[in-house]
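Summary of Year 1 activities. Much of the first year was spent building the evaluation harness for sequence design. The harness presents a backbone, in tokenized form, and records the residue chosen at every position. We chose the following record to illustrate the format because it has been used consistently in internal testing since the harness was completed.
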């Protein structure tokens, strides 16, 4: 069966409503289960009975009239009796029910009352949407002209209806209804597909000076025939929501970007990079000059005359604001200005509107000229203070952005400034420690290379950039050894700070002591390895009490000894890069000494590598940072080889050429390069004799030594040299078997060496007056500047050095022509 027409309010009817069919006389012919649930009367009791007995007759009104019976069509409220006889308020709809076979009947729809007339609900909803809702409701016709709008929405508040009704929406809000929005509305009108949550910025009619963000949704309106009538658009102002989200994103971004390095300038730049384009059009950051040097200012306000250094400046391209001071330039602020007032009470300053006639601009004319030229209309000044100490000040400007700064902006930059200040203070503390460590390190490194004739040497020491990712403390040395030999040393301590510098100093001092004992390179590294192990153990004990105070545990070192007489080079390595050898013919080879473990490593023995070099060979020792700057270390070594193969007038020129080719910018780590070009002592500078172990040869040795000194023009040293030769040869004959070798070397000093087959080293004694012997070495020590013993493969060598005589003009005698 079907009903004709549409039940009024039918859109609100649901399956919970009851249906009752009546014949033409009002007798019930159908009683639904919903009717039974609503009133309690059973189907078998009600079918065949009239419905009218269930109606509760209303009381007469004040004028004595009686309300009419329920209408034949339409809706109303009525009161019916339930099965227990109690009245029940229901909503009543009645309409004809036509069937092709049955006579005309009536359909009655009953529903529990909802406390209001459905028409009242519809009117209330429409009135609320058009007059009270905080959402913007705009009803547009098919030509997108405004038909209705919500007068209470923030974007249309105080806009008179007669001024905008009938006008195209594009004219009413041109910055909101853009080409894109208009295209979307026409698409909704033509297809019926709704648009949900399209975010559009613009300036609404109620606030033409302030930019807002709107979430737009639109759907098509149709009549009962399904024809389009227009478009309804809902606009929700989400400006604050997006601003809050943007603030959270900005703070999160700042926490990730600001303070990533222990570098003052970089920390200031990170603040500027984070803020410009998101909060301000331009930012300048000035840091106290004393802070820049790592010093800690006094707590509290800063005097107006204090010196600042411009540390960062950043501006969007459209602003055109030029900095008043260049990066790194020192300056003081004019007084009184917002900057000096900000530092006087440590309170930020918000200047929503900068006027050209503001009196404080006259006290800072340079800054004022730049601000006027860029049309800066709003600014903020925020102190950078951490742990009660003022470190600097940050200034924020707006010239392109129309909105002035407000309190929310000041709160945001205040939090950013506090975070930046902590980063600056950490960088300042690191700078102070780094500077102190650098001063100590420089004091522990050789200021100049010693005078010697074995090699022509030069070095380059480049301190790394503070706060870089690599932390190594290198050292280098050129140590004169006995027999005119020279030791070349380059090492690297893995670590940073005072502890690493102190470790470097201890290793360098130990290297000098071990070199003075004339130990072989592998023996020197073995002793340094033992020292590093002991230092690491001390560091572990210290770390148990202070985890932040840890001793470096490893180091690398390359130790090479060159003999200008034999032209031999002996090299040993402890985890250090391989030295390179550039021969005079341009061929560059590696000193292929086994790498060995780093000092303080696994304790494996070190090995030496020995080769004979032609005169003029260039020896290059360096730290790993010199070649680490390349994309791959092999490429850095290859480029280094190419530079070393070239001819250079001097070692200083060669050092510069290597640095220029290897580095394109300041390195993050300390770099050391040590270059040495080998020299040779000619045969006429060395005299050597071999004698049998016979007391008779003592006189012969003295005679030969005297003749050699005469040929060198050193007759002034003949007497002392004869005494030295006599004493050393006599001791060798007395205590050592086999042959005895005597060698004189004319270098920067006169070197006398006596080599025998005994490994027992003599020692200096202080004999009593009654002792018959023991005065030989004491006499030798008094007649020479230096003396010592070094062990050889066949025994030992006792050596002495005497200063060469000088003429009154300071020159050294030369050998006469023969």
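For this record, the design step produced the sequence shown next.
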């Amino acid at each position: 069966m079907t009903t004709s027409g549409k039940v009024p309010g039918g859109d609100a009817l649901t399956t919970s409503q009851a249906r009752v069919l009546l014949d033409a006389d009002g007798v019930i012919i159908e009683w639904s289960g919903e009717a039974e649930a609503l009133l309690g009367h059973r189907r078998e009791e009600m079918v065949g009975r009239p419905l009218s007995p269930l109606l509760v007759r209303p009381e007469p009104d004040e004028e004595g009239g009686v309300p009419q019976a329920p209408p034949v069509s339409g809706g109303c409220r009525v009161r019916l009796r339930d099965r227990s006889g109690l009245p029940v308020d229901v909503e009543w709809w009645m309409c004809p029910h036509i069937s092709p076979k049955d006579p005309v009947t009536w359909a009655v729809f009953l529903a529990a009352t909802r406390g209001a007339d459905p028409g009242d609900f519809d009117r209330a909803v429409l009135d609320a949407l058009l007059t009270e809702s905080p959402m913007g409701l705009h009803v547009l016709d098919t030509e997108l002209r405004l038909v209705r709008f919500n007068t209470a929405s923030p974007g249309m508040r105080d806009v008179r209806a007669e001024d905008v009704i009938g006008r195209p929406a594009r004219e009413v809000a041109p910055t909101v209804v853009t080409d894109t929005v208009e295209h979307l509305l026409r698409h909704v009108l033509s297809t019926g597909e709704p648009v949900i949550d399209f975010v559009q910025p613009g300036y609404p009619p109620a606030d033409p000076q302030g930019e807002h963000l709107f979430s737009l949704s639109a759907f098509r309106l149709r009549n009962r025939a399904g024809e389009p009538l227009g478009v309804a658009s809902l606009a929700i102002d989400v400006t604050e929501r997006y601003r809050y989200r943007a603030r959270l994103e900005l703070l999160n971004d700042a926490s990730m970007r600001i303070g990533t390095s222990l570098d003052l300038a970089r920390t200031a730049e990170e603040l500027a990079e984070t803020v410009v384009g998101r909060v301000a059009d331009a930012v300048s950051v000035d840091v106290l000059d004393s802070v820049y040097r790592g010093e800690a200012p006094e707590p509290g306000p800063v005097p107006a005359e204090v010196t600042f250094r411009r540390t960062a400046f950043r501006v969007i391209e459209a602003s055109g604001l030029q900095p008043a001071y260049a990066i790194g330039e020192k300056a003081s602020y004019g007084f009184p200005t917002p900057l000096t007032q900000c530092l006087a009470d440590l309170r930020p300053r918000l200047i929503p509107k900068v006027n050209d006639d503001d009196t404080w601009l006259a006290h800072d004319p340079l800054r004022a000229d730049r601000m006027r030229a860029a049309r800066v209309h709003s600014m903020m000044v925020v102190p950078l203070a951490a742990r009660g100490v003022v470190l600097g000040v940050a200034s924020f400007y707006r010239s392109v952005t129309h909105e002035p700064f407000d309190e929310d902006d000041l709160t945001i930059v205040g939090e950013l400034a506090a975070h930046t200040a902590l980063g600056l203070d950490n960088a300042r503390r690191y700078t102070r420690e780094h500077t102190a460590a650098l001063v100590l390190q420089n004091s522990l490194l050789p200021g100049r290379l010693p005078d010697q004739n074995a090699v022509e040497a030069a070095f380059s020491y480049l301190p790394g950039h503070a706060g870089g990712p690599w932390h190594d403390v290198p050292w280098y040395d050129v140590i004169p050894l006995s027999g005119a030999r020279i030791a070349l040393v380059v090492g690297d301590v893995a670590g940073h700070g005072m502890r690493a510098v102190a470790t470097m100093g201890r290793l360098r001092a130990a290297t000098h002591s071990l070199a003075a004992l004339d130990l072989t390179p592998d023996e020197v590294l073995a002793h340094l390895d033992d020292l590093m192990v002991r230092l690491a153990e001390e560091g572990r004990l210290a770390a148990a009490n202070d985890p932040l105070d840890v001793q470096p545990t490893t180091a690398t070192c390359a130790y090479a000894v060159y003999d200008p007489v034999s032209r031999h080079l002996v090299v040993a390595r402890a985890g250090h890069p391989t030295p390179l050898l550039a021969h005079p013919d341009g061929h560059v080879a590696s000193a292929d000494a086994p790498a060995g473990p780093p000092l303080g490593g696994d304790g494996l023995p070190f090995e030496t590598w020995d080769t004979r070099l032609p005169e003029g060979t260039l020896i290059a020792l360096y730290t790993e940072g010199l070649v680490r700057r390349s994309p791959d270390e092999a490429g850095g070594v290859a480029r280094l080889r190419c530079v070393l193969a070239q001819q250079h007038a001097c070692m200083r020129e060669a050092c510069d050429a290597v640095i220029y080719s290897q580095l394109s910018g300041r390195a993050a780590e300390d770099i050391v390069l040590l270059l040495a070009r080998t020299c040779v002592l000619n045969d006429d500078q060395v005299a050597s004799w071999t004698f049998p172990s016979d007391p008779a040869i003592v006189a012969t040795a003295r005679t030969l030594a005297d003749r050699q000194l005469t040929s060198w023009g050193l007759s002034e040293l003949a007497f002392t040299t004869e005494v030295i030769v006599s004493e050393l040869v006599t001791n060798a004959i007395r205590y050592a078997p086999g042959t005895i070798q005597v060698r004189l070397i004319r270098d920067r000093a006169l070197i006398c060496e006596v080599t025998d087959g005994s490994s027992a080293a003599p020692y200096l004694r202080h004999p009593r007056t009654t002792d018959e012997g023991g005065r030989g070495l004491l006499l030798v020590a008094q007649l020479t500047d230096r003396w010592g013993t070094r062990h050889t493969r066949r025994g030992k060598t006792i050596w002495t050095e005497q200063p060469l005589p000088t003429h009154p003009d300071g020159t050294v005698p030369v050998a006469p022509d023969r």
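Residues 499 and 551 are 6 Å apart (CA to CA). Quantitative recovery figures across the full test set are reported in Table 2.
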